[in-house]
Amino acid sequence: MEDRQFRNAMGKFATGVTVVATEVDGEVHGMTANAFMSVSLNPKLVVVSIAEKAQIREKIKHSKTFSVNILAGDQQELSMIFAGQVKNHQEVVFDQLSGIPVLPGAIGQIACEVTSEHVEGDHTLFIGRVIDIQLEDAEPLIYVNGKYRSLLEE
Questions:
Q1: Sign of torsion, CA 61 124 81 149?
Q2: pLDDT, tens digit, for every residue of 47-104?
Q3: Structural domain contains residue 10
Q4: With the CA atoms of 104, 110, 113 and 115 taken in that order, what torsion angle do they form, in degrees rounded to the nearest 10?
Q5: Which end of the chain is more exposed for a tag (fewer CB within 10 A), N or C?
Q6: How far apart are CA 79 and CA 103, in angstroms?
Q7: CB 40, CB 73: distance < 8 Å
Q8: Could you tell me if residue 7 is inside a domain?
Q9: Contact 102/134 with Cβ under 8 angstroms?
Q10: Residue 76 domain boundaries
Q11: Based on the structure, what is the number of domains in the chain?
Q12: What is the pTM (predicted TM-score) of this model?
């Protein structure tokens, strides 16, 4: 099968949109990702999948921490900024949750410490132990078939 066919098939799976963030030497780095899931309730673990070519991969390896910020329906621009689709944008300001950078307004802010990493194909799976969570009540940003969606669309 061709790469495009595989990508199209994976695009049929509707996902939420997250920004994974970490901090190294006082500088925050972030990347839009939809390859995120929970792994375990006890202990509380999540996983993010980061491409080997992504700049944030080495940053997470160095910091040993990351946050997963589940974006709200009105945060599409943030998703596009951290996906490198918006070149001229204002600086994004981060809050802190247990010393880890998080995005204000995200409906879920999940602060993690890396417990392990696994290289699989052209990605590294970072397993993170959840150390803190902050939740907001709002609709999520959805992504399917290469487009942003809302649960409120008719």
A1: negative
A2: 999 999 999 999 999 999 999 999 999 999 999 999 999 888 788 999 999 999 999 9
A3: no
A4: -150
A5: C
A6: 11
A7: no
A8: no
A9: yes
A10: 18-138
A11: 1
A12: 0.93
